């Protein structure tokens, strides 16, 4: 039994770094920011520089602030690490928990002794430098900067009609879910604002939060000069905030090696197990926009692994619809806190690395709680596409081992449970109804142009702009009546290649 206990994976150190530069002189290169987090995590674990240098595994989470030719080398060299294994992750907000779970599996199998997972962004520094007209004097980039294109989640007709970024796609999930579950659009806006206000209250008491204020639900729901429309129904306070310089590093080893390093037991947090699954990559192939079979499967298996809904939750919150869906699966009461860190709007959203920040706040909360406290970390990637949950605790897992995820089996079950998505019609013509939609702001910040995903009479799906936006917008943004299900006519323009939906009446 002693050997089994010694092989248990534990987190022994974690640290977040937040900086808020206002001038070019205060900016920080991403690799320096990540290295600062690694050094702080080692200090949190009580490791010396020599002990940190012996780490044999380094995972760097995909970052967008700079295009390094060798991201792991750029970080590792700054902290004098020469790991035998180094990896740069794919894109996705699910990556931090996936990497921690993979590190736990490796150390449990004896394939690694000391693993470091680190991520972050210097996007605020990039903005400050850009505003000042200053070119970053950072490590030479591996190639010219390229725009972020996450997979093929919005390929083809969606992109052509203006659905490109997450801020334009997540409203489709939000409004479809509101129409299915809320009595009125105003009720839905209030509910989403209350979710965000709950996140903000947590962020206000967490050190390092990017926005440590706590706006009220009314302030979050109402657009104004400080809280502009981003994409209806989302205001700025409902969207992930990537204008941050934030990094996070976490150190994983075995219980036995932690004791050999002199780490106190009350500083260790045990990793119990993980669960992951993905949804259809192309958003236009989804069976529904109101729910997610992948989220449900991941969270239900995580709860089973934990023996019930854990004491502390971190439910990914790039936009309100994701924690709403997750909380519904968990069946937690409305007053329950859905985050330990404060969410991607108010704590800060360093793109793919937020869940690393949340994992380190969870580490501190579990250390404080002690005894048998458990925590759930749930991350989401791309367009509600990739999902991963990690169960952690102040106590060892009941089964005595970290439960490695059998994701292929779960994925087969998810795929079998989901209805196939409808046929996509690129040249729609005839009677149609709105399945979901969003309204995008114009140059002046006012809502100006609508995009709908709709259905034809035979059930085929299409994407279209909306005719006569000025007349249609009051209908689409009415606080009293949902526009999902609104009837009309859609036409395809062979010259432009675009589709136009005209509401009836």
Automatic annotation (TrEMBL):
Superkingdom of the source species: Bacteria
One of the Pfam families matching this protein, by short name: TLP1_add_C
UniProt xrefs under InterPro entries: Thiolase-like, TLP1_add_C
Disordered: annotated segments: 406-430
Native organism: Blastococcus goldschmidtiae
Residue stretches spanning the membrane: none
Span of domain Thiolase-like protein type 1 additional C-terminal: 418-494
Keyword Disulfide bond among UniProt keywords: no
Family note: Belongs to the thiolase-like superfamily. Thiolase family.
UniProt entry keywords in alphabetical sequence: Acyltransferase, Transferase
SUPFAM superfamilies assigned to the protein according to its UniProt record, in alphabetical order: Thiolase-like (SSF53901)
PANTHER family for the chain: ACETYL-COA C-ACYLTRANSFERASE, THIOLASE-LIKE PROTEIN TYPE 1 ADDITIONAL C-TERMINAL DOMAIN-CONTAINING PROTEIN
Protein name listed in UniProt: Thiolase-like protein type 1 additional C-terminal domain-containing protein
């Amino acid at each position: 039994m002693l050997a089994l206990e010694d092989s248990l994976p534990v987190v022994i150190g974690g640290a977040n770094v937040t900086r808020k530069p206002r001038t070019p002189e205060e900016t920080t290169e991403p690799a320096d920011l990540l290295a600062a987090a690694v050094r702080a995590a080692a200090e949190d674990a009580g490791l010396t520089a020599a002990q940190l240098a012996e780490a044999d595994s380094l995972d760097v989470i995909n970052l967008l602030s700079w295009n390094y030719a060798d991201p792991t080398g750029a970080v590792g060299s700054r902290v004098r690490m020469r790991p035998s294994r180094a990896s740069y992750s794919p894109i996705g907000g699910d990556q931090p928990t996936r990497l921690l779970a993979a590190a736990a599996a490796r150390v449990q199998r004896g394939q690694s002794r000391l693993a470091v997972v680190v991520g972050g962004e210097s996007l605020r520094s990039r903005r400050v430098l850009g505003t000042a007209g200053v070119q970053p004097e950072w490590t030479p980039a591996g190639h010219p900067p390229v725009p972020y294109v996450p997979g093929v989640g919005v390929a083809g007709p969606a992109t052509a009609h203006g659905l490109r970024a997450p801020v334009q796609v997540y409203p489709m999930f939000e409004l479809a879910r509101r129409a299915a579950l809320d009595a009125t659009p105003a009720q839905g806006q209030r509910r989403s604002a209350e979710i965000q206000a709950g996140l903000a209250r947590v962020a206000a008491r967490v050190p390092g939060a990017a926005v440590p204020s706590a706006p009220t639900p009314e302030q979050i729901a109402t657009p104004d000069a400080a809280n502009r429309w981003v994409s209806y129904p989302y205001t700025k306070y409902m969207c992930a905030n990537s204008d941050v310089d934030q990094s996070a590093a976490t150190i994983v080893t075995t219980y036995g090696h932690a004791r050999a390093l002199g780490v106190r037991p009350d500083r260790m947090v045990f990793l119990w197990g993980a669960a992951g699954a993905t949804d259809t990559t192309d958003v236009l192939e989804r069976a529904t926009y109101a729910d997610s079979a992948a989220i449900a499967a991941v969270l239900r298996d995580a709860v089973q692994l934990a023996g019930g809904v854990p004491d502390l939750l971190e439910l990914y919150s790039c936009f309100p619809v994701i924690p709403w869906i997750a909380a519904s699966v968990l069946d937690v009461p409305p007053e329950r806190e859905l985050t330990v860190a404060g969410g991607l709007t108010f704590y800060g959203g360093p793109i793919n690395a937020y869940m690393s920040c949340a994992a380190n706040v969870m580490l501190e909360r579990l250390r404080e709680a002690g005894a048998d406290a458990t925590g759930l970390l749930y991350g989401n990637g791309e367009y509600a596409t990739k999902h991963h949950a990690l169960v952690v605790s102040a106590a060892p897992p009941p089964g005595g081992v970290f439960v490695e995820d059998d994701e292929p089996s779960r994925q087969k079950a998810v795929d079998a449970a989901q209805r196939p998505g409808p046929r996509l019609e690129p040249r729609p013509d005839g009677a149609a109804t709105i399945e979901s939609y969003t309204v995008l702001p114009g140059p002046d910040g006012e809502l100006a142009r609508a995009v709908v995903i709709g259905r034809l009479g035979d059930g085929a799906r299409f994407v279209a702009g909306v005719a006569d936006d000025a007349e249609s917008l009051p209908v689409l943004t009415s606080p009293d009546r949902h526009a999902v299900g609104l009837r009309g006519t859609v036409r395809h323009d062979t010259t432009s290649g675009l589709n136009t939906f005209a509401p009836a009446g």
